[in-house]
Recover the amino acids of this structure.
């Protein structure tokens, strides 16, 4: 009940489509049963790679800032944008550095690799073990529900608009069965040459 | 010695239970069927309830009562308003969004339910008392009063109710206040939500005023009346 992963609540999901990827999160920030904010997005852009962070809100803020700092240094030193695969390894090693006093976060990455042109998603546990997936990644207090909705709705090679519908329905219906997530959602559809960000007006109870 | 022992000792179970005559008397003096309460076949109902449902004293208890609720009832000049949410949770899992937390006892008596140790409310109109409202809980508290909110969302409901309550409210305004108080609680309390169940208890019995989804009510309240300005409805 008072696990650091479920004090603030929150949910995040990423999906692969045909030449596109999607990532979505809810907007709730709470203290156990009390909903403190309904405008706490959990997705952070690093160039055109996106990172979703659920878990303890203080660590969500710390880890997202730490990675912004590291990705900025990477861009300066390499003079190029970071690829999703490289960001995944950076997240992994940054988390494992704290092996015996971890950040209480469950990160999710979504992006398109611009050298190969291929969509990429992955997830992590709190100490940096990478979960590569060809279909979808879920995280947060509604992860059990998200596994269910994603298994039921996802199919291979979805076009961007269909992928948007699929990830939105998956997230909205999952958080409606979780007391600690919801209160609206953000959805990013990432294609080779454009990114679309949308707000979902979810249930506010 | 034997005489002494005989004088001071008694059969083991002499005073246990009632004698044949006492039992007969008890049965014969019972009131007619309609006034009897059915009781479970248990020696101590309170101890049984604790052992089977109390998470604190027995973490392995076989029945996990769904906590988290918002219920309210208040007295006003037009009678009594009773309103509840409809969510049932087991931990963070939302087990149901369509629970009926108002018990229709008869055509002029209503009860409300809040899980676990939280209380219940009884609202009704009697010839002797007029509109009567009681708060009752599992450790025997029984309070008469004008206004009660019970459950995990009680503080949020009290916030709205206390600010707007008056005994001289008109029927429509009183119903709207009950609805608005539950709406506030379902918004801020993670363990309350679902549907708003509304009742009006009048002298000639109660009237049900719907079991309505909070979602359209919330967006109507926000977008039409400009309340809930904390909620984002557009990307910036």
């Amino acid at each position: 009940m008072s696990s650091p992963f479920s004090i603030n609540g929150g949910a995040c999901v990423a999906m692969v489509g045909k030449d596109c990827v999607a990532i979505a999160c809810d907007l709730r920030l709470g203290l156990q049963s009390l909903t403190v904010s309904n405008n706490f997005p959990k997705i952070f852009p690093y160039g055109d790679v996106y990172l979703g962070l659920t878990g303890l809100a203080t660590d969500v803020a710390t880890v997202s800032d730490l990675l912004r700092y590291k990705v900025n240094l990477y861009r300066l030193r390499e003079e190029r944008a970071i690829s999703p695969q490289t960001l995944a390894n950076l997240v992994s090693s940054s988390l494992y550095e704290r092996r015996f006093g971890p950040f209480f976060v469950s990160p999710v990455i979504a992006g398109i690799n611009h050298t190969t042109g291929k969509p990429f998603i992955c997830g992590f546990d709190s100490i940096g073990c990478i979960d590569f997936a060809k279909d979808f990644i879920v995280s947060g207090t509604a992860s059990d529900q998200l596994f269910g909705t994603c298994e039921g709705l996802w199919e291979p090679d979805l076009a961007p608009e269909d992928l948007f519908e699929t990830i939105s329905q998956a997230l909205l219906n999952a958080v409606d069965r979780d007391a600690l997530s919801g209160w609206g959602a953000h959805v990013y559809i990432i294609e080779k040459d454009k990114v679309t960000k949308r707000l979902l007006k979810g249930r506010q109870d | 010695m034997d005489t002494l022992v005989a004088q001071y000792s008694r059969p083991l179970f002499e005073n246990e239970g009632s004698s044949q005559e006492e039992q007969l008397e008890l049965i014969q003096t019972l009131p007619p069927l309609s006034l009897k309460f059915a009781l479970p076949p248990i020696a101590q109902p309170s101890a049984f309830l604790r052992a089977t449902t109390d998470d604190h004293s027995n973490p392995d208890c076989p029945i996990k009562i769904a906590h988290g609720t918002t219920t309210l009832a208040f007295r006003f000049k037009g009678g009594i308003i009773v309103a509840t949410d409809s969510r049932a949770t087991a931990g963070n899992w939302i087990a149901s969004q369509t629970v009926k937390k108002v018990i229709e006892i008869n055509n002029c008596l209503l009860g409300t339910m809040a899980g676990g140790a939280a209380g219940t409310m009884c609202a009704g109109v009697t010839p002797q008392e007029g509109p009567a409202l009681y708060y009752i809980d599992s450790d025997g508290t029984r309070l008469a009063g004008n206004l009660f909110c019970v459950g995990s969302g009680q503080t949020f409901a009290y916030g709205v109710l206390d600010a707007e309550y008056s005994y001289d409210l008109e029927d429509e305004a009183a119903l709207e206040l009950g609805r608005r108080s539950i709406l506030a609680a379902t918004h801020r309390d993670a363990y309350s939500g679902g549907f708003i169940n509304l009742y009006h208890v009048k002298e000639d019995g109660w009237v049900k005023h719907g079991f309505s989804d909070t979602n359209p009510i919330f967006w109507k309240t926000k977008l039409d009346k400009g309340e809930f300005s904390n909620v984002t409805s557009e990307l910036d």
